[in-house]
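INTERNAL TRANSFER SHEET
From: sequence group
To: structure group
Subject: Helix-hairpin-helix domain-containing protein

Please process the attached sequence and return the structure record in the designated field. Keep the field labels unchanged so the import script can parse them.
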Amino acid sequence: MEHQIPHLPSNSAEILERQKRAEALRASGLKVWEVARTLGCSPYVAQTLLNRANDKRLEAQDTRWLTGLSHRTARTLLTQGYKNAAEVARALTEGVLSSEAPGVGPKMLTELGRWIEINVKDQRC
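Return from structure group:
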């Protein structure tokens, strides 16, 4: 089983919600350690959430299509300009999205393969 940080869910939608909550707490005047205590995570995780909350790539578009992917994979896809699961599936099929692409490795490709299978299956139902 893959090891994950317990305070950051692997679901991108959940991470985005935590980022928004962290940002709102910080905007209300709380210090980072107070945000961490409120969220039940370490100050390092709270700071990471705050940093990611200010990522303009995530603000500028609808990211619901990324649900089910790790945050790292979701950010890599956004950085490379993908806009939906169909584009990702096409890029995987054509070999454009491979371990040769920046920030993409074997684990990410495995994750994307499983994610695409689930999304395609859901669309057929």
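Handover comment: Residues 106-124 form the longest helix (19 residues). DSSP finds seven helices and no strands in the chain.
Transfer complete.
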